[in-house]
Amino acid sequence: MELKVLLVDDEINIVRNLQKIIPWHKYDFTKVDTASNGAKALEYVLNYDTDLILCDIRMPQMDGLSFLEKLKDHGKKCTVLMLTGYQDFDYVRSALKNGARDYILKPINYEELERIIAKHATEIKNRKLEQIKERNKWNKAMIVAYEKFLYDVLLDYTTVSSRQFLFDEENKLDELQYTLLLIDLDDYSQISRGWNEKERKLINFAVRNVLLDALMSHSLAYAVLQTREGEWCVLIQHQKNSGYDLEMVHMWSRKMLNAVSENVKLTVSVGIYPVHVPIDKLADAYKQLQRTVHLSPQNHQIIVLEEEVSQPNELKYSMWGLVEEIVSSIKKRDRDKMEQAFQELNNTLREISGQSLQRAEQFLHFMILHLLREMHEINVLTSEDEKSVWTMLERSISIKSLLDIIHKLLNDSFNSSTNRKPSDMLMVSAKDYIDKNLANDLGVEEISDYLGISYSYFSMLFKQTFGETFLEYLTKQRIELAKSMLLASDKSVAQIGKLVGYSERRYFTRVFYKFTGSTPSEYREKNADPKSILPDLSS
């Protein structure tokens, strides 16, 4: 850490001695400047950051006591040591009253002065380290809050006002626009059938981290938001009116597509929204891009959204709107609305099947896969019901049978949802929120605010549902994820600690040891397996 000192005295010989005799570099003072009076010193301090000031009291133009008063008036918080030949207590008292931290009598005892400087240099460095920690903590909190805000905007959970959220002074929401990319794990509903909860969590976590790392070298302001299992949106921030470079966006997309393939051994498709999107249009743009990616027949590709103008596409989008209504009605437990939307879907399908039977069948297949993921996301589909849907889907050969599957899927999901208490659904949402934010500095207040319930009610519900406190559950989930990552990746212990929410390696090691009886390095060495922990998807 580099420190700066200012020597203020009108006696040039004293200033020269201070410069030469004190080993400033020994105490990390890399810049040693001088001023001949208080007025020049004040001008210097107002223009340059200064950590330590050694200042005489008696000087022309502005004396040391007046200089101290001016520093205080300007709100400058420097460590000031006074040099004085005055032994009168009134001078010392005035200096200390106006902010001086210490004083040294002339003639100067340089050994004593060096001891005092060493003490204050340590205090200054400790104080600056604390300020850096607090600033980093605040910046991290702001990033988390901003990403949470973007997530809510993207999923249309909140309305947007340019004055509603300013995450720093330079970047106002109405002066920003975004490149929107959607990354979707190919055939997720099908390939995830054989995964247990631990494997689902690890794979989703791993993909998100790969996506974050893929663009790290490009100096972009971006967020990777998981919108549901197997699906992420990447938002790259730009200033308003900046140009859109589709070739560059293609390059970013290709980099992410290849990174997932190489590091997680799974394939993804990447959807590109072809223009920059203002924040109040993100929700609509996301829905359009999601539909385009899900209806694409090919895997492991980059898809650019094209302007939709034809009547068949209008029908297609109206059908997706009905699908969203169906999912929303299940979440709200509104059976009448669900049945009404399903009937409208039937009517719309007749129009499509009249033009192309194959297109109608294709759309229904995609819709079933989409609903399976949505129902799994809100945890209203049992494993038995999901298995039954897959069995029926493998045997279905007609539009009628596909519609029967959808109706059964909706009824099973609705019944599962209505059989649950509201408190159970709250805890499902809490668990999902924790799983998606393990790397963040999570607290009970944040989650209870997210759920819209009180801190005490959340704590009581959580303990009743999971049989342990929120902190116990959070720590256990983080350590379980860390164990998997230690065996499944070559990241360092410190990197893995940060990825699961522990910014300090020592603390991460201590917590890990408490839960497992070994350090992270010992655990990795003992349990190393040449086979990947990820499920084998090659067959």
UniProtKB/TrEMBL annotation:
Keywords: Cytoplasm, DNA-binding, Phosphoprotein, Transcription, Transcription regulation, Two-component regulatory system. InterPro entries: CheY-like_superfamily, Homeodomain-like_sf, HptR, HTH_AraC, Sig_transdc_resp-reg_receiver, Tscrpt_reg_AraC-type_HTH. Residues 428-526 form the HTH araC/xylS-type domain. It comes from the Bacteria. GO terms for cellular component: cytoplasm. This is Response regulator. GO terms for biological process: phosphorelay signal transduction system. Transmembrane segments: none annotated. It is found in: Cytoplasm. One of its GO terms (molecular function) is sequence-specific DNA binding. The keyword Transcription applies. Residues 4-121 form the Response regulatory domain. Pfam families: HTH_18, Response_reg.
